[in-house]
Amino acid sequence: PVLRLLEAQLQDQRREHEEEMEALKNQVDLMQEELEKQQQAFLQTLQLSPEVQVEFGLQQEITRLTNENLDLKELLEKSEKNEKKLKKQLKIYMKKVQDFEASQTMVPVERRPHERNMQVAVQRKEKDFQGMLEYYKEDEPLLIRNLIT
Description:
With about 150 residues, this protein is an all-alpha fold. Helix content is about 75%, strand content about 0%. The chain has helices spanning about 1-45, 50-105, 140-149. It is flat.
């Protein structure tokens, strides 16, 4: 049984290795084709006049930059989409926290003896606040209770 297990593992590793080698060979073939195209383009460019060479070089650079810009634009769109998703999740969690805090103000004090030990772990940036405090009207009971305790 152990020998068969080792044999099966060895075959799996061999198969994975062969698949990986095939993928690498394909990648090398593609790179070789690209290199040949570039060499042909380079040889053709050398036969052109200097002005045409400069123009051709500029066209190639414009093409490269355009492709790079498209890639960056796609990355930006993904980031913006992710940002929207995260903001939506944040709103949902903030609503849950507010609902939880509101439900805590409605529970009588006698029923929550361990509440002082429970603290919601919310990461906040340390800031020095000075002056007036802005709050929602519905948060007033919670604010007053926190000020008293």
